[in-house]
Design brief:
Length: 160
């Protein structure tokens, strides 16, 4: 993440990855305030064992795109509606409008949970345990909806 203020959003990704049993690291790398750290972080990511990078940023949100420019690992961008942002639109566009050859997979505004799911899906392509974890996660989402439907029916609502 680009700054400590992003932790509120990005911690959702960390929590879900923890639940899934995916090893992760969380750190600050500012594209503007620590550009040399950004280059070192991105260029050494693969050697350090990283397989996917989730990068969150608000405002101009250069972090995901700059990280993607220094690594061939998949980068998932999480746009954040920061204090200086234009309701998050600037962050979203800076991630979506990457030049050909340097993609950033971009989730919804403040969609850190989906970033964690997407990263896990990428890892699950070669990890049967994670594929099973994802199946169970999807089943739990379905079960939650079904429980809600049942609660609504008990309260007199009908889904007819």
């Amino acid at each position: 993440m680009g700054s400590q203020s992003d932790l509120k959003i990005m911690s959702a990704a960390a929590e879900l990855l923890r639940q899934f049993g995916v090893t992760y690291e969380i750190t600050l790398v500012s594209a503007h305030r620590t550009p040399h750290r950004l280059v070192e972080y991105a260029e050494t990511a693969r050697k350090r064992g990283l397989r996917v990078i989730i990068a969150g940023g608000g405002g101009a949100a250069h972090l995901p795109g700059m990280v993607a420019s220094f690594t061939t690992l998949p980068v998932i961008g999480v746009p954040i509606n920061s204090a200086t942002s234009i309701q998050g639109l600037d962050s979203i566009l800076s991630m979506l409008q990457m030049p050909a050859g340097v993609p950033v997979a971009t989730v919804a505004l403040e969609g850190a949970t989906n970033a964690a799911v997407l990263a896990t899906q990428m890892l699950a392509l070669s990890n049967a345990r994670l594929a099973d974890v994802l199946e169970k996660y999807r089943t739990s989402l379905k079960d939650k909806v079904m429980r809600t439907i049942e609660e609504l029916r008990k309260g007199g609502f009908s889904d007819d």
